[in-house]
Write a structure and sequence with these properties.
The protein is α+β, with helices and mostly antiparallel strands. It has helices at about 1-70, 75-95, 100-120, 145-155, 200-215, 250, and strands at about 100, 125-130, 140, 165-170, 175-185, 220-225, 240-245. The chain contains six helices and seven strands; from the N terminus they run H-H-E-H-E-E-H-E-E-H-E-E-H. About 25% of the residues are buried. The strands form two sheets. Strands 2-4-5-7-6 form a five-stranded mixed β-sheet, with helices on one face. A two-stranded antiparallel sheet has the order 1-3. A hairpin with a 5-residue loop joins strand 4 and strand 5 (about 175-185).
């Protein structure tokens, strides 16, 4: 009886140990697979940023070249000075995955001032920032600028009337950050067939949102309305809504 009891205990112990080792190997394998997936997502994010930066720089250099061709040396110099400040900030943000609302607003303000010099009286823009919004709130770096650039390119540049661009930031009751980008242009449905596809910056930004959601388990939401469904923006143009959940560096571990 004792022999059978000891043999049974040893068999159970060996089976339990083998099962534990198998589960441990499986867990380690899953961890390595998840780590590899995360690394690939990080590399994808860096690749997307590397594609956005040259596209953005190319547009700015075109503007400087235009001023030079027109012989407008004073504005070319002012634009170049602002551009140098902006490009330094762009290089800094491109190396980071996240930034804060205060820095993002400063970055977008500088960018819009550059575009104001290019469009002159054809562009009227307004940054509508909620007064009590937390300036240290975290959001993905360089996420908004490509959408604003697309609104200027397709909504303002092709608008025969005075172009209007409104960028608003609000904190919702659930503490989410809601960003609206609205232009009064012709809208997506009224664009020529060759212009209806989304621009490079827009496609890359869509990929960035998907990658951020996958990499950091976020739920950033994107909605494009043309014409806007919100009555406060009228019945013209395109409205882009980006909703970002509350983030902390502890949660993100960056």
């Amino acid at each position: 009886i004792w022999f059978k009891l000891i043999a049974g205990l040893l068999t159970t112990a060996l089976f339990t140990g083998a099962l534990y080792l198998a589960l441990l190997r499986q867990r380690k394998k899953s961890y390595l697979k998840l780590r590899q997936k995360r690394k690939l997502a990080e590399l994808e994010l860096e690749a997307i940023k590397a594609q956005i930066n040259p596209h953005f720089i190319f547009n700015c250099l075109n503007s400087i070249q235009l001023f030079t061709y027109r012989g407008d040396i004073s504005n070319a110099q002012q634009y170049l000075d602002r551009f140098s400040l902006l490009i330094r900030k762009t290089m800094s943000l491109s190396q980071r995955k996240f930034t804060i609302v205060k820095e993002e607003i400063q970055y977008l303000s500088n960018y819009l001032q550059l575009e104001q010099m290019r469009f002159k009286e054809r562009l009227e823009y307004h940054l509508d920032i909620q007064e009590n919004i937390n300036p240290l709130r975290i959001l993905p770096a360089m996420l908004l600028q490509p959408y604003i650039e697309n609104a200027l390119k397709h909504g303002i540049a092709h608008n025969p009337a005075r172009g209007q661009l409104i960028i608003s930031m609000r904190e919702t009751d659930q503490d989410w950050l809601e960003v609206h980008i609205h232009d009064n242009g012709p809208g997506i449905s009224n664009r020529p067939p060759s212009k209806k596809s989304r621009g490079l910056g827009m496609r890359l930004s869509g990929s960035r949102i998907e990658t951020y959601n996958q990499l950091f388990n976020l739920n950033i939401r994107l909605q494009i309305q043309s014409p806007p469904e919100d009555p406060q923006y009228g019945e013209k143009g395109t409205l882009i809504k980006i909703v970002i959940p509350p983030l902390t560096y502890e949660k993100l571990k960056v």
